Amino acid sequence: PPSLTILGLESSCDDTAAAIVRIGDDGTAQVLSSVVAGQTDLHAAFGGVVPEIAARAHAEKLDICVEQSLIEADLALSDVDMIAVTAGPGLIGGVVSGVMCAKGLSAATGKPLYGINHLAGHALTPRLTDQVPYPYLMLLVSGGHCQFLLVLGPDEFTRLGGTIDDAPGEAFDKVARLIALPQPGGPAIEAATRKGDPNRFAFPRPLLDRDNCDMSFSGLKTAVLRARDAIVAKKDGLTRQDQADLAAGFQAAVVDVLASKTRRAFAQYPDDAPRTLCVAGGVAANQAIRSVLETVSKDFRAQFVAPPLALCTDNAAMIAYAAAEQRALRGPDDLTLSARPRWPL
Ligand code: KG4
Ligand code: ZN
């Protein structure tokens, strides 16, 4: 097959992104550019992503990101063969901005348009970066997502379970706030754990006894809150050591839950297929989490694949790549493509 150049757009949360991916005539994928404009400073004062502010920022920045992605790839819009866009799930104002932008580009150039599920983008990333063969197990852990998927094909996913409340990244961020560490909470907590004693506090490991891949992190967060309050009731504030011990106890609980549920997920792996465990999402940056997933993979004689962090977190290259794979299964969308706030895989 001739080579294929795809422009991807992503705007479903708080990153505006555009990327160019090329599939060579030998089928290998190459990321020619991947531009990500974050909005962290816009939302910082509000303690979370404000959907209306996010949508406006996406609408303002999408065209600039597209232009930048073309410049970095040294291409013109006319060199692009198809246009891919996240059509959900996500904050609807942002998704609408991306879909409208992509429709405009498609209508103006006559290039085919593909609406892509954001979660499918994350789930297919290990194929973009490491040519992982189907089927494989995917643990998606970020600020907004937490689920185990069995990835069987470009549009064939079995959801094995996921969080019934907070995502782990959200828990890291909230716990950091509770124990007076800076945002984003993940890296701050991970750094604090280095001098901490994970056994000083006995935090819960929710749903461990349940024989499925469901997880819960909000009770863990409440347990940290209680432990903090108990300390603060006795003296004025938290010492560095208290922060480190709380952080270490919390992270150890998250690590145990993810390890145990990964074991349960492996139990559902097809018997005769070679085994691979992949991760995606910002929480995959955590070294303790990575290393426990590596250990569990070894126990199940599975390969462990963690794509480079820039492609683990929200980006548009994964959306462009997912469109290239799904093109083998279906035709393009037309201008009736709609943005979907909810869109389970
Ligand atoms: O994938 P991502 O960039 O976007 C969202 O889905 O929001 O993930 C961001 C999340 C944040 O909650 C952040 O605290 C968490 O990933 N994170 C980490 C680490 N680095 C980032 N969590 C644990 N340990 C880390 N080292
Ligand atoms: Zn995401």
UniProtKB/TrEMBL annotation:
Its main location: cytoplasm. It comes from the Bacteria. Fe cation binds at residues 118, 122, 314. It is an enzyme of class 2 (transferase). It is found in: Cytoplasm. Keywords: Acyltransferase, Cytoplasm, Iron, Metal-binding, Transferase, tRNA processing. It catalyses: L-threonylcarbamoyladenylate + adenosine(37) in tRNA = N(6)-L-threonylcarbamoyladenosine(37) in tRNA + AMP + H(+). Residues 30-321 form the Gcp-like domain. Substrate binds at residues 140-144, 173, 186, 190, 286. Its cofactor is Fe(2+). Transmembrane segments: none annotated. Binds 1 Fe(2+) ion per subunit. It holds the Pfam family TsaD. One of its GO terms (molecular function) is tRNA N(6)-L-threonylcarbamoyladenine synthase activity. Required for the formation of a threonylcarbamoyl group on adenosine at position 37 (t(6)A37) in tRNAs that read codons beginning with adenine. Is involved in the transfer of the threonylcarbamoyl moiety of threonylcarbamoyl-AMP (TC-AMP) to the N6 group of A37, together with TsaE and TsaB. TsaD likely plays a direct catalytic role in this reaction. Belongs to the KAE1 / TsaD family. This is tRNA N6-adenosine threonylcarbamoyltransferase. It comes from Sulfitobacter sediminis. The lineage of its organism: Bacteria, Pseudomonadati, Pseudomonadota, Alphaproteobacteria, Rhodobacterales.
